[in-house]
């Protein structure tokens, strides 16, 4: 800074003019009291908005992770961690923004430059983190059609019901599938009663081919209630009805097994996952925009404070 000042003076530029034009003076620049009051009020307003947004982010992160069919269970269902990771990002980011907002409030109320500087530095990092979480939320939605169905099919055919007493991963996957199939009243991956990838997919799984099914054609979690389980799973033959009959079943009512869920789980999970991804992405990006505005106001207010306040 002194070097630049000397250089300007060597060019015959008055030092006072140099300070005024290039803000080389280390002391804070004078600001009109009305302008300063306006910056303070605007900064406090945006701090409050960001704090409310941070609480919302924390709540959404907890909701998407711990809901009955939240991101944690979906991650186990398809053996992919991206869904769970996004919830954790929201929880960590929301908690951190709450703490940093409190620091910002203290810095503004106390006119404490050091606290406000800490607030600005951490806020810059968290703004980027929040945008990453928001983008991940939209990526989560974008991946549904392209990857999730294939991943669900791969996990179901290879891991479901296989070595569940020796493999903790396979046991978690199996429990997740059973829970989702019962909760959403679905069976298999995708399609309706006439699809080869809904209830009929179980006959292409390792669970079926390795004889781990105990004579069942579908697991009990694909059945409505506990009555007629043997008929539903195909242990007791039901002439001309699934699961022993290969699809398509079409509209022949006498061929239908009314105790069996016939809709694929992706079909019923898709709207839920789409809504969750949009909620995460939109919330993170909107709060991120307010954080950027608040960051600019914080920098402006920071420059008006004495260095040793």
Automatic annotation (TrEMBL):
SUPFAM superfamilies per record: Tetraspanin
Signal peptide: none
Residue ranges that the Swiss-Prot or TrEMBL entry lists as coiled coil: none
Plastid as UniProt keyword: no
GO annotations of cellular component type: plasma membrane
Alphabetic keyword roster: Membrane, Transmembrane, Transmembrane helix
Classification via Pfam families: Tetraspanin (PF00335)
Membrane topology: Multi-pass membrane protein
Family per record: Belongs to the tetraspanin (TM4SF) family.
InterPro entries from the UniProt entry: Tetraspanin/Peripherin, Tetraspanin_animals, Tetraspanin_EC2_sf
Name of the protein in question: Tetraspanin
Cell compartments where the protein resides: Membrane
Transmembrane intervals: 42-65, 86-109, 115-141, 278-302
Domain of life per record: Eukaryota
């Amino acid at each position: 800074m002194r070097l630049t000042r000397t250089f300007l003076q060597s060019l015959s530029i008055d030092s006072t003019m140099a300070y005024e034009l290039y803000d080389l003076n280390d002391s804070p620049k004078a600001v009109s009291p009305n302008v300063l009051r306006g910056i303070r009020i605007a900064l406090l307003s945006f701090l409050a908005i960001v704090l409310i947004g941070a609480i919302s982010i924390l709540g959404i992160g907890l909701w998407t992770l711990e809901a009955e069919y939240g991101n944690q269970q979906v991650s186990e269902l398809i053996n992919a961690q991206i869904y769970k990771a996004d919830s954790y990002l929201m929880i960590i980011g929301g908690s951190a923004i709450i703490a940093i907002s409190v620091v910002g409030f203290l810095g503004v109320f106390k006119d404490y430059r050091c606290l406000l500087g800490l607030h600005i530095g951490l806020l810059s990092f968290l703004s980027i983190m929040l945008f990453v979480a928001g983008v991940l939320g939209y990526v989560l939605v974008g991946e549904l059609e392209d990857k999730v169905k294939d991943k669900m099919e791969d996990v179901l055919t290879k891991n479901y019901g296989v070595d569940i007493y020796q493999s903790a991963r396979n046991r978690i996957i199996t429990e997740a599938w059973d829970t989702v199939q019962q909760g959403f009243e679905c069976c298999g991956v995708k399609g309706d009663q006439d699809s080869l990838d809904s209830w009929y997919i179980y006959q292409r799984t390792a669970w079926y081919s390795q004889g781990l099914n105990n004579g069942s054609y579908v697991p009990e979690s694909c059945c409505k209630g506990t009555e007629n389980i043997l008929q539903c799973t195909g242990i007791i033959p039901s002439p001309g009805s699934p699961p022993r009959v290969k699809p398509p079943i079409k509209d022949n009512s006498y061929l239908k097994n009314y105790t069996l869920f016939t809709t694929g789980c992706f079909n019923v999970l898709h709207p839920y996952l789409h809504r969750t991804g949009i909620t995460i992405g939109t919330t993170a990006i909107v709060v991120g925009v307010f954080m950027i505005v608040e960051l600019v106001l914080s920098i402006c207010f920071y420059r008006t404070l004495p260095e040793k306040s």
